[in-house]
Design brief:
Elements lengths: L1 H4 L3 E7 L5 H8 L3 E8 L2 H13 L6 E5 L13 E7 L1 H9 L9 E6 L3 H10 L3 E10 L2 E9 L9 H8 L4 H19 L7 H22 L2
Parallel strand pairs: 1-2, 1-4, 2-3, 4-5
Antiparallel strand pairs: 5-7, 6-7
Length: 218
């Protein structure tokens, strides 16, 4: 799913590459001519190097041991994939690389804090342009495409999934609503004042329920 969202590029970056399989796919499919593969840990990066050798692509996959995009030459990347990590980590990575707003395509697959990530992107001059869902090993995953284009309207993944009529959207909305309902129920037992957070979650739950009504009309 993530790979299919990557546009054809001369140079792509795979942040948090782990085993390096995405980098190999981008090269083999012709989506990229060169891939900058990074990881903050040496173990995963060494696995990526081994994968590059196994597929005879060691000259096309350039590896970097670093935090996010903090390496010399990162600005060469036209497409940047950041997948399999929390939304707060993605915010940290992009905050340290403001050049990603300049004509780059970002493919993000947040594992947590997705609404917070979307809000940060909106407030910092990015716009979400596409969204896609998939099931893998019984779990639902979301990926979004982002461009450095300011927008007056916060474009959420739900709106884009509705536009695309993604067949997995009903299940996604149901899961998201259940998470919020569970959180709200837990707050009832809290001793401290959570009025503001409760109001925010309730508003989001109302939005999700309105999307569910739209989906029911498909």
């Amino acid at each position: 799913m993530v790979a299919e969202l990557v546009p054809k590029s001369v140079i792509a970056a795979d942040v948090g590459t782990d085993h390096g399989y995405l980098a190999v796919w981008l090269l083999q499919s012709g989506r990229a001519e060169r891939v900058l593969a990074t990881d903050i840990h040496s173990g995963p990066l060494n696995r990526a190097k081994q994968t590059a050798v196994e597929f005879g692509l060691e000259s096309e996959i350039e590896t970097h041991l670093c935090d996010g995009l903090q390496f010399s030459g990162a600005e060469q990347a036209e497409s940047i994939v950041i997948a399999g990590m929390g939304g707060e980590t993605m915010i940290s990575i992009l905050s340290a690389a403001p050049w990603t707003k300049q004509g780059r395509t970002l493919i993000l697959q947040p594992q947590s804090k997705r609404p917070e990530l979307e809000q940060w992107l909106h407030e910092n001059g990015y716009t979400t342009t596409d969204a896609k869902l998939c099931f893998d090993a019984g779990k639902l995953y979301l990926a979004i495409t982002v461009r450095g284009v300011p927008s007056e309207i916060l474009q959420t993944a739900e709106v884009l999934l509705l536009r695309n009529r993604d067949p997995l959207l009903p299940e996604f909305l149901s899961q998201e609503a259940q998470k919020i309902e569970y959180a709200l129920k837990g707050m009832e037992q809290a001793e401290r004042d959570l009025t503001a957070i409760r109001a925010q979650l309730s508003k989001r739950l109302e939005q999700l329920q309105s999307y569910q009504k739209e989906v029911a009309q498909w």
